[in-house]
Fold:
Amino acid sequence: MTDIIVEWNHHLFSSDTETYPFHPDATYEPDPSRRHEDPLSGYRRRLDEVGIDRAVLVQPEPYGDDHSLVLDCVYEDPERFRATSLFYPRDPEAPGKLEDLVDEHGDVVIATRFHSSDP
Structure:
């Protein structure tokens, strides 16, 4: 049996805020030094350097319930990465959004968080 090491809590941020805009009601915006043109390349390098086989990418709060970045990153290497999702429980459309996400991406989205602040 081979051991597999999994990191389970990594947030990625893109410097391309046109393609990956922050949610208008996000409680914070990540420091510009944490935003990268290719957010996955440096993280992959670090995983390789320290011997981590797989990772769970956490949907960062600043993107709200727009999962574009985390899904784009996961699908760059779906054997290595999985994702969490984030929804606002007071959003009346949240159940439908979650159902759509599971229908379309249930193969790579493995967990859901609910954010208590209003969007």
In short: DSSP finds three helices and six strands in the chain.
